[in-house]
Specification:
With about 200 residues, this protein is mainly alpha-helical. The protein has two domains: about 45 residues; about 130 residues, AhpD-like, CATH 1.20.1290. It contains ten helices and no strands. Helix 4 runs antiparallel to helix 5, helix 4 runs parallel beside helix 9 and helix 8 packs across helix 9.
Length: about 200
């Protein structure tokens, strides 16, 4: 299958490349296309990977909340690869898969708590251009999760915007990672007819 990316994937070579391919195949069953695209600029790839590893260690904000915020962000941006990968990771991290699969239609779904709804609303408000975060929403979140968690959540959403907008601009799309491990399909966003 020919790549539809705007920058064609590069050949992944060298010792670092061999390690990345081995890790990817073990983790995902294949080498994700973004790795080949980002291979054109290994400094960018390494910087994004290093930041991601560090961000995964942050612990002021609940991991489930960050996951829902991340998925709401990438869903709004339209990064199908990021959404698919986040759903795949939710399974590996023992997060609530019923909630994860409902993120694209979170406003209509009845599986989310009021706090989770505020977190996803905050993610979307941050993702608008220009951002539309309100004082009221920020105050509600501060009251519920605290200052440190809100700062962490905000940075996590900002990072999700960076990666999802990068992937979307480069034409990187879903590779069906979640489907390959037997997860039910993600819910369709409201107003989108199902193709199944």
């Amino acid at each position: 299958m020919a790549s539809k990316t705007r920058v064609p994937p590069a050949e992944i070579t060298g010792i670092f490349g061999a390690m990345m391919k081995r890790f990817s195949k073990k983790r995902f069953g294949e080498v994700p296309e973004p790795l080949g695209v980002m291979w054109h600029s290994k400094p960018v790839l390494k910087a994004l990977m290093a930041f991601s590893r560090k961000a995964q260690k942050w612990d002021a904000c609940d991991h489930q909340m960050k996951s829902l915020a991340h998925m709401a962000t990438v869903s709004m941006v339209g990064c199908s690869f990021c959404l698919d990968l986040a759903y795949f990771h939710a399974r590996d991290e023992n997060l609530d898969l019923d909630k994860a699969r409902e993120v694209p239609r979170w406003r209509e779904s009845d599986v989310f708590t009021p706090l989770e709804r505020d977190v996803m609303a905050y993610a979307e408000a941050m993702t608008h251009t220009p951002p539309t975060v309100s004082d009221e929403l920020s105050a509600r979140l501060r009251e519920q999760i605290g200052d440190a968690a809100l700062v962490e959540l905000t940075a996590f959403i900002g990072a999700a915007n960076l990666v999802s907008r990068t992937n979307t601009a480069l034409g990187i799309e879903s590779q069906g990672l979640a489907a390959s491990c037997g997860l039910r399909p993600l819910a369709e966003p409201s107003g989108v007819a199902s193709t199944s």
